[in-house]
Each structure stands twice: as structure tokens, then as C-alpha cells.
Write a structure and sequence with these properties.
Length: about 110
């Protein structure tokens, strides 16, 4: 039932992706987005926004870690995105932020 509700409100969820500035909302959105069935255009928008959040050093650590997890799930569902995911990981790793590095290490072990 929860996924049906989410699917029925996909446009609103995607709108929030563009408009939200609240960190608590961002990390919850990042968790929801991989559960949506996305068109190619929607997927491109989601990847672009999540990647921006992953690179944004001013974002909270929780947002950035959650985004890394979401990008991993999306790249697992859409194999053509694996290269994009690995590129993001390589850049984020260079920052040497412990929380990001711990999540990356966990994701690499999968």
C-alpha cells in the first residue's frame, strides 16, 4: 500500500526534489526516490539532483551518506548508471570525510 501511495504521488515527490531546502526532508526524499518507477527523463533529473547533493560540501553528512546509498540502489536497478555512480564515489572519496568513506566502504563490499 505504501508503494502505491508513493507511486500515485510521484509528481509531488519529484517536485519536492527540486524545491526542498530542509536537510531532514532531503535525506528522507533520497530514501524514497529509488522506490519510484521513473521515466528516463525523471531518472536523469533525480540523478542530477542527488549527485549535486552528494558533491555539496555544505550538505549535512546524513544527507550525503543517504544520497550515496540511493545512488547505489539506482545504479543497481539501472545498470547503465553504474559508471555515473562510480564517478560520484571517486570524487566524494577524495574529500576524506569519515561518514562518507564508511558508507562507500560498505557499498563497495556488496
Amino acid at each position: 500500500m505504501d508503494l502505491l501511495y508513493l507511486a500515485l504521488n510521484k509528481l509531488e515527490v519529484l517536485e519536492f526534489l527540486i524545491t526542498t531546502t530542509e536537510k531532514e526532508f532531503k535525506w528522507h526524499l533520497a530514501q524514497l526516490l529509488p522506490r519510484l518507477k521513473l521515466s528516463k527523463k525523471e531518472l536523469k533529473t533525480v540523478m542530477k539532483r542527488l549527485t549535486a547533493w552528494a558533491f555539496a560540501k555544505k550538505e549535512s553528512k546524513i544527507v550525503r551518506v543517504t544520497v550515496l546509498q540511493s545512488l547505489f540502489v539506482l545504479s543497481d536497478k539501472h545498470k547503465d548508471l553504474e559508471w555515473d555512480f562510480h564517478s560520484v564515489v571517486q570524487e566524494v572519496e577524495k574529500e576524506n570525510v569519515p561518514s562518507n568513506y564508511a558508507r562507500i566502504r560498505k557499498l563497495k563490499s556488496r
